[in-house]
Amino acid sequence: MGGINQGFAAAAAANDTTGFRPLTDVVWGTITNSSSPWFLGGNWTGTLAARNIATTNSFTQRRRATLATAATASAINQYRATVGEVYRGDADNKGGFGLKMRMGVSHAAAVADARAFVGLMAPVAISAPGIPQSLVNAIGLQFEGGETTWRIGSNDATGNATRVDLGADFPCNTLSLDAIELELSAEPFASSVSYIVRNLTSGISASGTLSTDLPLPTVLMGPMFFIGNGTTALAASLDLMGIHLRHRTGF
Question: What CATH topology corresponds to 2-216+234-247?
Answer without folding.
Answer: Jelly Rolls (2.60.120)
